């Protein structure tokens, strides 16, 4: 078991350790101190300003920097074997480390050191990655930033991640993999034995979340026709004949089309069903207003055709989420009314939300979403770049830095948005380069066990107005078929992560015969895997013989765990 000692305990530091170990899936607990008697079976994590060394225990000392959370700055970088480029180290560093180095700073100084006392290890991590994770997950860099865009959105160029060209890398995922490698040092040394929950169902290597924003459903609309007439007139006045030709073709197409090429709900279902996948559609639900500040609502939930599409998606098993209005991101009454309107049409609870144009003010928008009754949000992505806005891909419960409380709302971060990909000059609208850039991110996710949340807007199956976008999406779905990956809707991701959280490893016991843990569940869980990390030869015993499980190498695979299950897993050496 991993036992954690916090020298200066606080809610926000405990939150980070809870989040870290919940994601990594270890059996862990917080303790007040390291015992006097020798203990070679457990791993102690000590977070403080001084180095803690003890020859009778396995210990990881993590340096607690004196820097404030808001004053983040890079003080160096380390090279890690599982990532391509040096990773910045933020906050103050512990300068004097001795013993055997595991990782070095770029300048050659020791970043992580190891001492071996007759088989028991003491490892010192000389940089405060705990505070770095806190900085990015709480979005501290956004709270004190005022130079936002016209919609008040925080841009990727404002983030410290952009400065170090890490906006498209899941920095926290990298830190978690690094920390797992540190803990694995004790396992490799032959003393410690740990058990951890696999990240994804059936032990799959990484996760993919498929989502669609429903901004437009009609190619032909009064607003659209008026817009292109204006563009046509501008082109004529400015002798911009390229724009004249484009605007004329748009107007001509709107006037002549019979079957609207933007009405693609059935096509999406048929496309994804070919691969055995489902996705989430986020629908706008505000009322049409003649004098609305933002005239971007192209459809109404009162239209029978839209209602029919919503019911069709629900019947097929696709999820409906709310696409929050631009004005409701800080207005709980408006957001609640939108939620109720959508629920009344689909006749089911709406549990997920994404804010229109990714417009949020954090942590206030999180708090409003939670108060209104949403279980998850999927807004946290860049509006102007692909990548990882909070530096992490995994679902997590935000920490409201204003109330100093962990939230029940779950955030499913957004990573890749089709509109950004195809507008980017970097890829020059090349189908091949866009596909390869996505695959590059997926391969990083496979190494780190990450989640990639994909957004493809609803009308883009129209290949005239949106060339290549359907084919790129289809190529990516085909790419997933050849990978050991869990693919699902935002609801599928949310439900898996909640069930994984509910399955807890507790009550580790050690005696002369071996080691045991208790696995308890609060709800029914399917395709749940446990990984045993141990260098000694062992036999596995499960206390409940009625449980359906298989053992494959160092994995215990449970096909189904019922609600309120309690079983003992024992290793005998």
Textual characterization of the structure:
The protein is of the alpha/beta class. Helix content is 31%, strand content 25%. It has 4 domains: 2-146 and 170-198, Rossmann fold; 207-216 and 260-497, Alpha-Beta Barrel (TIM Barrel), CATH 3.20.20.370; 220-256, no CATH class; 508-572, no CATH class. Helix 1 crosses helix 2 (129-137), helix 6 packs antiparallel against helix 7 and helix 13 runs parallel beside helix 14.
CATH superfamily of the largest domain: Glycoside hydrolase/deacetylase
How many separate domains? 4
Helix content: 25-40%
Q: Give the C-alpha Rg.
A: 26 Å
The name of the CATH topology of the largest domain is: TIM Barrel
Number of helices: 15
Task: State the distance separating the first and last CA atoms.
Answer: 17 Å
What is the CATH architecture term of the largest domain? Alpha-Beta Barrel
What structural class results from the helix and strand content?
A: alpha/beta
Low-confidence stretches: none
User: Into which percentage range does the β-strand content fall?
Assistant: 25-35%
Shape: globular
In a nutshell, what does this entry contain?
With about 575 residues, the protein is an alpha/beta fold. It is about 30% helix and about 25% strand.
């Amino acid at each position: 078991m991993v036992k954690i000692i916090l020298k200066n305990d606080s809610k926000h530091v405990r939150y980070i350790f809870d989040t870290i170990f919940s994601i990594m899936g270890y059996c862990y607990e917080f303790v007040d101190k390291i015992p006097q008697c020798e203990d070679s079976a457990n791993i102690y994590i000590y977070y403080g300003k001084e180095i803690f060394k003890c020859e009778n225990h396995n210990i990881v000392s993590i340096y607690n920097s004196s820097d404030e959370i808001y004053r983040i700055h890079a003080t160096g970088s380390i090279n890690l074997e599982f990532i391509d480029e040096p990773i910045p180290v933020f906050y103050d560093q512990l300068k004097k480390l001795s013993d055997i180095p595991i990782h070095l700073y770029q300048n050659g100084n020791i970043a992580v050191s190891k001492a071996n006392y007759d088989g028991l290890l003491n490892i010192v991590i000389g940089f405060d990655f705990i505070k770095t994770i806190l900085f990015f997950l709480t979005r501290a860099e956004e709270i004190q930033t005022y130079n936002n865009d016209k919609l008040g959105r925080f841009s990727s160029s404002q983030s410290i991640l952009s400065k170090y060209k890490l906006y498209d890398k899941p920095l926290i995922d990298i830190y978690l993999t690094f920390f797992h490698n540190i803990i694995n040092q004790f396992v490799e040394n032959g003393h410690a034995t740990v058990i951890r929950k696999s990240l994804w169902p059936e032990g799959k290597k990484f996760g993919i979340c498929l989502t669609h924003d429903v901004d437009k459903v009609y190619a032909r609309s009064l607003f659209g026709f008026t817009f292109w007439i204006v563009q046509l007139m501008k082109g004529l006045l400015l002798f911009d004949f390229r724009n004249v030709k484009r605007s004329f073709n748009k107007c001509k197409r709107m006037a002549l089309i019979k079957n609207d090429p933007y009405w693609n709900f059935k096509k999406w279902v048929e496309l994804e069903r070919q691969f055995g996948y489902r996705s989430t559609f986020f629908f706008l639900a505000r009322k049409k207003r003649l004098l609305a500040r933002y005239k971007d609502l192209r459809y109404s939930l009162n239209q029978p055709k839209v209602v029919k599409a919503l019911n069709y998606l629900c019947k097929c098993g696709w999820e409906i989420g709310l696409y929050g209005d631009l004005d409701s991101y800080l207005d709980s009454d408006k957001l609640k009314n939108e939620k109720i309107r959508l629920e009344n049409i689909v006749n089911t609870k709406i549990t997920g939300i994404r804010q229109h144009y990714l417009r949020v003010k954090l942590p206030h928008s999180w708090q409003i979403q939670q108060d209104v009754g949403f279980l998850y949000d999927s807004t946290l992505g860049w509006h102007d770049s692909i990548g990882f806005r909070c530096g992490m891909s995994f679902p997590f419960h935000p920490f409201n830095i204003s109330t100093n409380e962990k939230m029940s709302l779950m955030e499913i971060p957004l990573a890749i948005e089709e509109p950004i990909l195809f507008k980017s000059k970097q890829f020059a609208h090349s189908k091949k380069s866009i596909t390869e850039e996505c695959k590059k991110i997926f391969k990083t996710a496979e190494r780190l066990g990450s989640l990639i949340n994909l957004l493809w807007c609803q009308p883009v199956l129209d290949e005239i107005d949106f060339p290549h976008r359907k084919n790129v999406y289809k190529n990516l779905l085909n790419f997933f078929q050849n990978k050991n990956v869990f693919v699902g809707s935002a609801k599928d991701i949310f439900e898996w992560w909640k069930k994984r959280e509910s399955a807890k490893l507790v009550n580790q016991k050690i005696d002369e015969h071996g080691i045991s843990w208790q696995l308890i569940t609060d709800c029914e869980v399917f395709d749940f895997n446990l990984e045993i990390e141990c260098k000694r030869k062992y036999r596995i015993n499960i206390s409940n013989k009625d449980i359906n499980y298989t053992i494959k190498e160092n994995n215990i695979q449970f096909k189904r765990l019922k609600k309120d299950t309690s079983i003992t897993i024992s290793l005998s050496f």
